[in-house]
TrEMBL record:
Transmembrane intervals: 34-53
Domain of life: Bacteria
The protein, known as: Uncharacterized protein
Species in which this protein is naturally found: Umezawaea tangerina
Disordered, as annotated region: 62-82
Basic and acidic residues bias: start-end ranges: 72-82
Keywords: Membrane, Transmembrane, Transmembrane helix
Taxonomic lineage: Bacteria, Bacillati, Actinomycetota, Actinomycetes, Pseudonocardiales
Amino acid sequence: MLARVPLQDTVALVVAQPPTSNDPGGQREDFGKSSPLGLLLLVLFFIAVFFLVRSMNKHLRNLPASFDEPPPSDKKDDPSQG
């Protein structure tokens, strides 16, 4: 079936691939350009982040300053004592 290939041979094959003469190295005619769809997605992302931060600030304002339990009061809440 499949024969084992030594690691040195595999690495040598990957590293030894010769570059082609007409390869621009990943910088083709579309390199560095973005589409209007990309701009729209970016603007929508920033709008969503704005509203999420605004909502988070509203929720954080409603939190108490401290989560410690209040000290017990000396008075007992007894409804019979008017």
